[in-house]
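*** Backbone structure tokens ***
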Amino acid sequence: MSGNPSLNRMIRATLYDLKKRYGAPISVYKLSAASTDYETGVKSATKTSVDIQKAIVLPTSEARRFLTSISFISASKSFVSPGAQGWDQSQRGFIIEGRDLLNFEFEPEDWIVYRGKRYEVTLIEALEFDTGWLIIAKHTRGSAPEQIINLNLVDTLNVSQNESETVE
């Protein structure tokens, strides 16, 4: 991080507070490669995922209020159209701290899985000094989340064999 150290501390403190209030586990998916077998028509995709224990998941109403603040309105006049036509009810805001995704670059093809639902990335905004990202994503109804589920099996059963024999 570079820049003003006081500002950096304030940004970190704000992100920490938001994580406490609105933190929830999410998974971020990146499509690494995709191919199609033209003889069989079978499509295959290679994807990677990163699980984030506490990302800031803004409630839909809060995200709408946050994005229609005066600074956003002055930057995007089309968003202020009558009837709030610039905001879809299925959109949600995610703020991801930079420390949770080191050496990661968001792309429009990426998606987020939150509570078993797939959210397609529609807007990517990098926060100051690489402290994180503001991601606006739209829930795609009817599409499979295409989750990678990691199974960790732990054997806690300690089996011991005891035999005793009584001889008369």
